[in-house]
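Title: Prediction job returns without error message
Component: structure pipeline
Severity: low
Priority: P3
Assignee: unassigned

Description:
Job completed but the reporter wants confirmation the result is attached to the right record. Sequence as submitted:
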Amino acid sequence: MNRDKKPIEELIKELAKSQQQTSELQQEIAFTMKMINTSPTFILTINPDGKTLLMNETMLNNLGYTTAEVVGRDYLNTFIAEKDRATAAKVFETLVQKKVSKVNEIYMLTKTGEELLVEWHCTPVLKEDGAIDYIFGIGIDISKRKQVEKTVRNGEEKYRTLIEQSLQGILIVQDFHIVFANKSMAEITGYTIDELLSLPPEKVRAMIHQDDQALVWGRFKERLEGKEVPPRYEYRGIRKDGSTRWLEVHANRIEYKGKPAIQGILLDITQRKQTENALHESEEKFRMLAEQSPNMIFINKGGKVVYANKRCEEMMGYTRKEFYSPDFDFHNLIAPESRGIIESAFAAHMSGKEVEPYEYTLLTKEGNSIEAIITSKLIDYGEDKAILGIITDITERKKVEEELKSAEKKFRELFDSAGDAIFIHDFDGQFLEVNKTACERLNYTKDELLQMTPMDIETQEFAESLPDRIKEVIEKGSVFFETVHLSKDGRAIPIELSARPVDFQGKPAILSVARDISDRKTTAEKLKQSLQKLETTIENTLQAMAKILETRDPYTAGHQQKVAALALAIAQEMKLPADQAKALNVAALVHDIGKIYVPAEILSRPTKLSESEFALIKTHPTVSHDILKTIEFPWPIAKIVLQHHERLNGSGYPQQLKGEEIVFEARILAIADVVEAMSSHRPYRPARTLQETLEEIIKNKGILYDPEIADVCIKLLKEKRFGFEAYK
């Protein structure tokens, strides 16, 4: 009995051990299935005939099936999108025949027919005899990733377009080489983009005015070293043609392709600087320029506004009466966060320090904010000191700078908030995109404009030339011209338009930026009328001065007018520029004004003058010069009058000038003066004949008188194309 009991006990132990191993195996299988089902990836097995054996829960949930619905189903025809079935079939064939692993992207179908892009990593699993047991695959749903990549690519493309179409110059400098520049930067400097990118360091340095190189390259070095440097400042740049332009730069340190570099955003402020310099000429000119300036201009004395131009009223919402009120608080114009910088700048000015242009925020009467940059200077105002400020509204520019940091959404905001109308059309002229300003200015809805072409919004004169303009844009790369747009209600709007080719949504197109220049045209017309009135006033004043002289010397009545007529005829025959002819005419009308200081009895004496009396007569060019030099003519009138008695051989007076030392206008005036004087009666002699007058000019041509001018005068008189009779 004992011999039989031991085998039974061992059998029981072996059975218990076997049950324990079975339990452990079941737990391992359960754990493995849990891992498979909870995996975030798709897990799939397919038999060599293409029938589905297993899908994990992640794959089932994404495709919308249950396990019972997929097991045994034909994998290719059930779960693969039709467009990828042929590709999937080739991959499956390769897996079965060549028994190698494959990675591929395949569009799969959900139960509802939607498509998912899945990246599959498939491997054949072999039996002990080398035959394929099943295909094992791990898949990753990359649909969202692909969509994100596409969105990023579109965003980057629009961002690049935004930089290229920026009205501000943008460049990156690294190791004194320009490694990036946009089209506006090329326009500012006069180089092409390729030329800028190929400039050697010494040429890059030379693009800065010699007097400003220490400032610009000093800050460049300090900024690279990580020092605190003002990001915005002004300097003079040298263009390719050698001309100088004032530039405002906003610079910052960046990493470019793994190395430190300096990025600069530049704006051509030459016109603004010219405006600032012109303000110093005179108060009258200052006020005229200030009132026409697109910038806000003010003078602050002791914290009180003593002058504000029209633009201040328009932008800030206050009247000048309010600005000038003793109770007006200047601080109300400044946003709270900007008051500290304003007070510091004013304090620096009053202590005699120069203050660089700086940015701050203004508050209008209605409480609206205006981003601005101010250039301020300490000036003499009466017996006191005051602050002259020129404020440029940079609200739009600030928006541009912010928009450069974003992609699609911010690009759209910038596009629609631009102060200029922006149009994008194809090469046939069909509008593809327009901004909000274009719609508001022309009074069309966006949908209406997108059904139109530029020919529909331009006057007939400009519309007919549209095909030629499109061709010019394509050939030249950019064009700049003026045209006239017509609003929906027929209102004509003068426009300054800049156009250049761009890529829009993957197709070639033309981007046009249209600026309303109605105000500029109106201002120009007013300035033209003012100039005409001023010229008329000057001419009338000169004629009045001549009349005063004639009342003292009746024998020379009309002399200056007749000399002016002959001088002008000579100038026209010689085809001198209109401005030079105008200067000559004005000088001739008053060339003897100095005789007003000569006693009348000497001027009209019928007998020969004494040496002292003739010496007094000879002072009249100098006296004329002294009178006329006090008048601010746009031409050298005083100098011309001073030299009209000079002669080529140096025998004239008062300076005994010779040849080219005598200004050209004075040489014309000299001949006209002699011809008229000889042709007219004087108390001490009768009028000379035309022949006698001509003989005098011919005899002394090249000695006393300029030969070229003399020939022209002789020709006019001989051909009787000029005569003094009309001026009696």
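Comment from assignee: result matches the submitted record. Residues 274-398 form a domain with the Beta-Lactamase fold (CATH 3.30.450.20).
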